[in-house]
Amino acid sequence: MTTKQVLPLIAQIPQSIVGFLESSSSLWSSSLSKTTQAHARILKSGAQNDGYISAKLIASYSNYSCFDDADLVLQSIPDPSVYSFSSLIYALTKAKLFSQSIGVFSRMFSHGLIPDTHVLPNLFKVCAELSAFNVGKQIHCVSCVSGLDMDAFVQGSLFHMYMRCGRMGDARKVFDRMSEKGVVTCSALLCGYARKGCLEEVVRIFSEMEKSGIEPNIVSWNGVLSGFNRSGFHREAVIMFQKMHRMGFGPDQVTVSSVLPSVGDSEMLNFGKLIHGYVIKQGLLKDKCVISAMIDMYGKSGNVYGIIKLFDEVEMMETGVCNAYITGLSRNGLVDKALEMFELFKEQKMDLNVVSWTSIIAGCAQNGKDIEALELFREMQVAGVKPNRVTIPSMLPACGNIAALGHGRSTHGFAVRVHLSDDFHVGSALIDMYAKCGRINMSQIVFSMMPTKNLVCWNSLLNGYSMHGKAKEVMSIFESLVRTRLKPDFISFTSLLSSCGQVGLTDEGWKYFSMMSEEYGIKPRLEHYSCMVNLLGRAGKLQEAYDLIKEMPFEPDSCVWGALLNSCRLQNNVDLAEIAADKLFNLEPENPGTYVLLSNIYAAKGMWTEVDSIRNKMESQGLKKNPGCSWIQVKNKVYTLLAGDKSHPQIDQITEKMDEIREEMRKSGHRPNLDFALQDVEEQEQEQMLWGHSEKLAVVFGLLNTPDGTPLQVIKNLRICGDCHSVIKFISSYAGREIFVRDTNRFHHFKDGICSCGDFW
DNA sequence: GTAGGGTTAG
What we know:
single chain; 761 residues; mainly alpha; Serine Threonine Protein Phosphatase 5, Tetratricopeptide repeat; four-stranded mixed sheet; DNA-binding; repeat
């Protein structure tokens, strides 16, 4: 076409376009004022109704983040096109104003406009960012109906959206239909499966990549590493790491932080130190994840020095790093230091998140700081941090440990409200908590209401019934477990054997002991042997128990010998007791319990010289029995009661009640030589009396505070001693109370002065 | 115009 031919055509171009052409240079200019000027010129020339011009104007305003102006332009167009909307949607998405972006889209849709292949990727990106799976799915439908779902960009963003929403199944369907699959998409899929713990898929995709000529890069390798790590294959993760290194992929900060958890779990401290050296050389110690993972590795390997040194050196006050530090400290028993650091972090107004709170709560609950754990759980909510599916099973053991039923119940309520009660971890922790608080019926209800149960849930229930001495129930639950597709493990058998021991079911005990290895291929561990020794010993078959110990394929530990010694006390067998005690003196020379048990056995036989000699031996070693300690919960507050402690605010009332009970006992002819007024306990300083002291306090306190007698008090951690039992028995018959007493992990139920189970009483 | 990886809590 010649110039001569073109010129008449140009003359026919409408005036509006001429206006646009005049202003076009300003529209692509670099300042907002020029855009405003262009806008004015467009309005003057009447070009504002032109879709293309308006769209450019919208884009230009958006470019300067003037979204309101852009939207005004959009709204002024009488008949807007997809393109006009998409300019604004694109800009809003880019500015991360996702909700507004979706809002503009819905306006576009209500104009009857169908999104095109340019808008769709933006929309999917928005849904991915907002995890708006349902909206995304609907837009996916729109793209299918309009036949746009075969577009590579649409597919790519759709795939990403499903991945971000954690919908691996949907993502996989899109992936399988994708026309172009590159290393990026494959790695993304691989990493997605790794996060979900689908190791098989991870490995399959990785090998298929190689087969189909897609060269895996460092991201793919990192995904494989994290897959092994997440699925608990720690050794394998380390091996892959070494293989990757050999193949010439230099580990980066992501590689290091992916493999370090596995190094820690395999307790390969030296290898961890090697990585530490590499990290320093490569200058990766600036990365927060690397530091957290490094602290975590030292913590898991028991290297407290490593944790503290690294934390002090890096001086990085970042939430993740601090969380790893808290966990590392409490994992190694330094819970006081952890609490101290946590306080410091709070003072420094650090941004503590749900992991921070959960870490310190779990640290407390695992290190005997149960009351602190409950207090922190409350404080966390006051601080506006919402407990999640990890927090709840971390704090529930604290409720169980101190039989704080009220706290446990309200946590259960919380879990139900936030829809977490079906979670395996939460459910199992609830079952355990209720059992430890004496409410085995609630454990049963929680269990029955769970839509699906894993082995941990079953084991919690088995252990609960076992704790309550209900062997028949344990066996019947075990039968139900066997009928499921789940296979019982060594923990299931521990509950079975322990409950058989409690009620003297020797034959059943042997049956399960052999069933464990013969039918299920589970090798008996130390705890199974202790259960068997206990079972045989209680049944009076001490020699058989001792023979079993001698036949053990590995060295018996203190629990096994302790079980034998305890049985010897029940059967008054001095010879075997001396053998067992001798082993225990070697294994745990610091444990005063062994001396006391042995001396009791001597005393029962009237061997007073031996009694004296054992007592002297104990004293010469400077050993003392731990003071008794109990907890009791009254109206949602947990009270700790320590032997010899008079600091309780109601000590006078308690003493008064004690006197009253003592008087009643005298009148009704109960063991008149027993005296359990507090002052007498202290004056006499008799060990037996001291042991019973705190429990009496708890029982009496419970009576005082529950005048209507409705709540059954669960008293934890009772030390076995005759004096205290008599008190509990007496109170139970005298006051007509049902009293539950928990002796470490076993329950005794008193009604009308009779204990329903156990020969201790 | 789309698009990939890591740490710390049970």
